Here is the input.
Amino acid sequence: MKTYIYPENLRSAVKLWFWNVRDFIIICGGIILSAVLFAKLWTPVPLAFTACYAFLTLRAEENSIMDFITNAVRFFITSQQLFLWRKS
Here is the structure.
Protein backbone atom coordinates (compact mmCIF):
# COMPACT_ATOMS: atom_id res chain seq x y z
CA MET A 1 0.00 0.00 0.00
CA LYS A 2 1.40 3.40 -1.02
CA THR A 3 1.11 6.45 1.18
CA TYR A 4 0.76 9.83 -0.51
CA ILE A 5 1.52 13.02 1.37
CA TYR A 6 -0.34 16.10 0.14
CA PRO A 7 -0.06 19.73 1.24
CA GLU A 8 -2.69 20.90 3.68
CA ASN A 9 -6.07 21.05 1.90
CA LEU A 10 -4.21 20.93 -1.45
CA ARG A 11 -3.82 24.73 -1.24
CA SER A 12 -0.56 25.35 0.57
CA ALA A 13 2.70 25.67 -1.34
CA VAL A 14 4.78 22.53 -1.89
CA LYS A 15 7.96 22.67 0.17
CA LEU A 16 11.16 20.69 -0.06
CA TRP A 17 13.16 20.98 3.15
CA PHE A 18 13.22 24.73 3.91
CA TRP A 19 12.42 26.09 0.43
CA ASN A 20 9.53 26.12 -2.03
CA VAL A 21 10.08 23.68 -4.89
CA ARG A 22 10.56 26.56 -7.39
CA ASP A 23 13.29 28.11 -5.20
CA PHE A 24 14.91 24.72 -4.65
CA ILE A 25 15.13 24.11 -8.41
CA ILE A 26 16.66 27.58 -8.93
CA ILE A 27 19.20 26.91 -6.16
CA CYS A 28 20.15 23.51 -7.62
CA GLY A 29 20.57 25.03 -11.08
CA GLY A 30 22.66 27.83 -9.58
CA ILE A 31 24.90 25.36 -7.79
CA ILE A 32 25.48 23.36 -10.98
CA LEU A 33 26.18 26.52 -13.00
CA SER A 34 28.45 27.84 -10.23
CA ALA A 35 30.44 24.60 -10.15
CA VAL A 36 30.94 24.68 -13.94
CA LEU A 37 32.00 28.34 -13.89
CA PHE A 38 34.30 27.74 -10.93
CA ALA A 39 35.98 24.83 -12.75
CA LYS A 40 36.48 26.91 -15.91
CA LEU A 41 37.16 30.43 -14.60
CA TRP A 42 38.22 29.90 -10.96
CA THR A 43 35.79 32.54 -9.73
CA PRO A 44 33.60 31.98 -6.66
CA VAL A 45 31.26 34.91 -7.44
CA PRO A 46 28.38 32.82 -8.91
CA LEU A 47 28.55 30.51 -5.88
CA ALA A 48 28.28 33.55 -3.59
CA PHE A 49 25.16 34.75 -5.48
CA THR A 50 23.63 31.28 -5.25
CA ALA A 51 24.35 31.07 -1.51
CA CYS A 52 22.88 34.54 -1.00
CA TYR A 53 19.72 33.57 -2.91
CA ALA A 54 19.45 30.35 -0.91
CA PHE A 55 19.70 32.32 2.35
CA LEU A 56 17.15 34.94 1.27
CA THR A 57 14.57 32.36 0.19
CA LEU A 58 14.93 30.18 3.29
CA ARG A 59 11.42 29.68 4.70
CA ALA A 60 10.43 29.52 8.34
CA GLU A 61 6.70 29.28 9.09
CA GLU A 62 5.70 30.45 5.58
CA ASN A 63 7.87 33.59 5.80
CA SER A 64 11.15 34.37 4.09
CA ILE A 65 13.52 37.31 4.02
CA MET A 66 12.90 37.71 0.27
CA ASP A 67 9.14 38.07 0.88
CA PHE A 68 9.79 40.74 3.51
CA ILE A 69 12.15 42.68 1.21
CA THR A 70 9.69 42.41 -1.69
CA ASN A 71 6.81 43.68 0.44
CA ALA A 72 8.92 46.51 1.86
CA VAL A 73 9.99 47.68 -1.62
CA ARG A 74 6.40 47.43 -2.83
CA PHE A 75 5.14 49.45 0.16
CA PHE A 76 7.81 52.17 0.30
CA ILE A 77 8.88 52.57 -3.36
CA THR A 78 6.66 51.15 -6.08
CA SER A 79 3.10 51.51 -4.81
CA GLN A 80 1.39 54.83 -4.37
CA GLN A 81 0.42 55.77 -0.84
CA LEU A 82 -2.88 57.58 -0.43
CA PHE A 83 -3.38 59.90 2.52
CA LEU A 84 -6.71 61.57 3.15
CA TRP A 85 -6.83 64.64 5.37
CA ARG A 86 -10.16 65.59 6.85
CA LYS A 87 -11.03 68.46 9.07
CA SER A 88 -12.65 67.19 12.25
